[in-house]
Amino acid sequence: MNLSLARRLTGITGLAAAVALLLEVPLYFVYSGAPPASNVLSRLLIGVLALGFVLTFAMSFREFVAQASPENAWIGRLAGGAGLAYGVVTLVSSGLEAGAVIASDHPIDPTITVDGTYILYGTIGRMLLAMFLGSVGYAILRTSVLPRWAGLLTCGLALVNLAFMPSLFFGNTPAHFYAANGWGTTALMGALFSWWLLGTAIALLRRPKPATT
To answer: Which residue ranges does UniProt annotate as crossing the membrane (predicted)?
Structure first.
């Protein structure tokens, strides 16, 4: 894969992931009480599709960094591995939640979560996403594949995710901002990640290929 193709593939998959995630996030705020199973399954389906694009974005970014700056390929590999781990862990938690919904004939009580999924969505997800964003931001700063401000912004978002790791000490009520699966820990962080993906993808698709020497 050459540099131009790696850039386009990274940008396109990032854009697709961002669009899917931006479609998913509003579904969390449609109902003030317990959402019906159809709502939960719809957002899970969109989220699974988005995560597929996120996985492809992470792997494409790894190749993009390797092509743009071979001496910094290790950073791209770190980003790709962290992105892969984040995607897989979130897919597992989505599968557990979907299984619980399908097995139930009643609307989902937002104060009840399948045992363990709120840790996967929350603390574990925040840690893995921080690793992914931190390595992507560092790669941008080291290789200049995007403007310096983009790297700094990405590193800043990684720190925000790290700040939500201790949320597991504050219960698992989704209506609470800083709970293990609270709307700040999950929905807000997901929205910020969506907008980051969108901006990064547009920058990759619009920025011309660097001149080769």
So the answer is: 12-34, 40-61, 82-103, 118-141, 150-170, 182-205
